[in-house]
Amino acid sequence: MVLLDFFKHKRLPPPKIDDLYRLPAASVTMGHLNVEPTGKAGMCFRSVGDLKPEEMKFGILQILENKSFLASHQVTGDQYGFTWVLIDSDTLANAVSNVYMASQLLIEGGFSDHITAAIFRFDRGELPVYWVYNYRRAAFYPFAPRGNERDMQLEYRLQLLVMEELPVDSLEYWFPIWGIPF
After folding, report:
1. Total domains present in the chain
2. What CATH number has the domain bearing residue 22?
3. 158: domain range?
4. pLDDT in tens, 132-179
5. 53-66 and 92-106 helices, crossing angle to 10°
6. How far is CA 40 from CA 71, 111, 130, 179, in A?
């Protein structure tokens, strides 16, 4: 039975969160392409093992509310079965700090295997541009959805613009995250 349990749920290495604090400085450089931070951020979680999305949502809410997480937040699900913690802050620096704190609390609360990405919204005019932080790879990548397509040209330009300031992931790990709820 122990061997079957091993194959059923393999523990992942703990998420790395320290590089989150490099994003605010890089946002100044992004201004050269008229990409401006909004203060909106989110954390995406996936269900692993026997934990159902409703149970995960309840557990996340309990941890954040019991630990007196003061940031304005909401926990919701999406049509793809992911659970989201949405954080609304007044500045990007505060959004990064709030995501960092929520990450710490949720990792300590046993959700480290479920945490997938932190996503920060920027706007270019009326259109969203997201910076996605992959916790496992400790790297960022840009995502510029335009309907059912993505603006790869803008994403490449952003990568080149900030690659000295941010750890930017390899192109093969730039997974689109459709339906971001903010």
Report:
1. 1
2. 3.30.70
3. 15-171
4. 999 989 999 999 999 999 999 999 999 999 999 999 999 999 999 999
5. 110
6. 11, 22, 10, 15
